[in-house]
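Predict the holo structure. Ligand: CDM.
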Amino acid sequence: MTVDKLTLPSPAKLNLMLHILGRREDGYHELQTLFQFLDYGDELTFAVRDDGVIRLHTEFEGVPHDSNLIVKAAKKLQEQSGCSLGIDIWIDKILPMGGGIGGGSSNAATTLLGLNHLWQLGWDLDRLAALGLTLGADVPVFVHGRAAFAEGVGEKLTPEYPEEPWYVVLVPQVSVSTAEIFSDPLLTRNSSPIKVRPVPKGNSRNDCLPVVARRYPEVRNALNLLGNFTEAKLTGTGSCVFGGFPNKAEADKVSALLTETLTGFVAKGSNVSMLHRKLQSLL
Ligand SMILES: C[C@](O)(CO)[C@H](O)COP(=O)(O)OP(=O)(O)OC[C@H]1O[C@@H](n2ccc(N)nc2=O)[C@H](O)[C@@H]1O
Ligand SMILES: Nc1ncnc2c1ncn2[C@@H]1O[C@H](COP(=O)(O)OP(=O)(O)OP(=O)(O)O)[C@@H](O)[C@H]1O
């Protein structure tokens, strides 16, 4: 049966740890990071068109149509596959932009997987991830959809199986520019590489945290408040801050207290992304 319409989730990610090992000649940083997904995210709806046009119908404040990672992903896949079909796309956007939870990268990955399915291209995940990497360092992990230890700029992935707690995620109302944090002279860039797997306990720090906390009082405040209840961590280059709890009831209780003054949400950690669970159910 051919399908011409599809709605797919686009989950957030967390960086459970993030170490910066050095800077490459092209300016990008060599990292070691542990990615896990959240059962929380945007939802994209795709409808095939036969005239080759690619159109995103939902407007994004501050992001022109052709700069949107959804449109960029669709255009690249169309060009590289030589497909003559087009697509109409709508998104229900709930993930904050510039929050370090990978919304843009996740949207790009959902688009690649959705169009591969609808256009019946038959590309495998490695090929889609390689295309995705040209759109952003975090796209490959969303394409593969498995919690992973990542090296390089985030593209060398080894599956890992961290615990899957319930998280409270706080969303300070500031957008942090990833480029700005990576160019800060005070950033730690010489962490020793971890050579054993799974990542040994005691390595959960995020090397970006001191620089982000110094620049953004809102992030500092969120870390302090959540830190009263559990280990409070920064994801990516922020702004989001998160902490794990053994069950939903405890996470809900802490969230209710903190979201009186801050924005935030509760979501379950997951080692298989909800995008991949949905795609599996379609096969
Ligand atoms: C920090 C992480 O969020 C960890 O998951 C990601 O590595 C960031 O990935 P991203 O948002 O997709 O970032 P990109 O759009 O690829 O890069 C934004 C900018 O951040 C800097 N950048 C990013 C990733 C990296 N490993 N080294 C860098 O120096 C570069 O100046 C780059 O121009
Ligand atoms: N579909 C999209 N969704 C979100 N942002 C987009 C999208 N397309 C382009 N962008 C641009 O990308 C920037 C980064 O967005 P994103 O949501 O990926 O940030 P992030 O959560 O900090 O990501 P990361 O964790 O990968 O650093 C936005 O500020 C916006 O200008």
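The chain is about 30% helix and 25% strand. The mean pLDDT is 96.
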